[in-house]
Structure formats: C-alpha cells, structure tokens
Predict the 3D structure of the following.
Amino acid sequence: MFPAPAHPLCVEATLDPRLTRWKWLVKWILAIPHYVVLFFLQLAFLLLSVVAFFSILITGSYPRRLFDFNVGVIRWTTRVNYYCSAVMGTDKYPPFTLKDVTDYPIRVDMTYPEQLSRGLVLVKWLLVIPQLLVITLMVTSGWRAYQYLDDYSPFSSGLIGLLTMVAVVILTCTGSYPRGLFDLLMGLMRWMLRVLVYASLMTDEYPPFRLDMGGREPVAGAMEPAGGG
C-alpha cells in the first residue's frame, strides 16, 4: 500500500544495490520488445486522452476504465525508462503489464479523481506553459509533455539524460551508483510525471514548482520528502 501522497500521482523507487557495472550498455537493446508494445500503447494513450477531454467537458468526469488504462501506460513506460533510459536504477527486467507490480523497484500509482472541472479542461494547455519551460531543461523536447512517453534512446535527452550518463559512468568506474544523483534524478522524474498527468487531463491539481527528491514520495502534510528508498 502507498502512503497518503502529497500529490495524486505517487512515484516510489528503490535503487538496486546490486547493479552491474556494464549491463547499462545493452539494456536499451534488451528492452526493444517493450518499445514495440509501448508504441501502440502510447498511441492509444493519446487517442483516449482526446476521448477523455470530451467526457470531462460534457460530464465533468474522466471515464474510470480509460483512466486506469492510461495510468497503466505511464506505469509501464516509467518502468522501462527506469530500467534502460532515465535513472537506470535497476537491472531487473520490466514486466509486460499495465498493472502495478509490487516487487518491481519502481512503482507508479494515481488517485482517481471523482470529479474534474469542465472549465479547467479548456485552459490546462495554457496554464501548463510555465511548467513546460522547466521541463525543457529536463528533456530536450520539453515543449511536448508527451516526450516522456516516447523517448527510448539509450539515454534520455536533456538534464535527466546527462545526469544518468554521469551516474552510470561513476557506476562503471567504482561499482557504486551515487545516491545523491539517484535522489536528484527521482526528483526530476517525479516532477516530469506530475506535469504529464496534468497536461493529460488526469488531475486538476497543478504540479508544484518543487523538487521532491529521493525514492520515497512525500506524504500529505509533510514539509520535506522522505529519504531515498
């Protein structure tokens, strides 16, 4: 069970203590079967987001089955990115499932919104622009909130890609993944995912301009996030 998170989106991760020094060089190749499946899942994500837009506009609610599916796509994508592109914090191969996998080193879940603002759905694209300015620093194509869903190069682009490369080079040289970089990368990933779910109309809670670092999600009411997982 997740604790009560400070944000509707909850991202929890544990750094694998037994990372091999060289496996990161071939992970993106091993993950090719995931790329194929995720191509179609992410296309469905975009189409269903359009359907959800009209549903929210007319009824004020995001269809539950569409919501669960899209959360599953984000969950699956995040596991693959965590494995072979952004962070590279585990050597455990990602499972082929939209469901939450409790024993995988990174988990994503989101609270379903019973009601969403009909008017806000029309202007979220405008309100999210300041966040996209920040995301631009994290990924090269930050102006597209969905860049996170389709970036499967050996390293993510932008700041996340650079820091991940530094982390795995240190891992190769020392056999140890730097905890400080892991905490920072998780904070950046968490921020990017919050922007993604807001831009995807899955929540009305505006993403905070705050870097919640570490593997643990900050709990509701806490001033500081918990330490790394």
Observations:
- Residues 32-59 form the longest helix (28 residues).
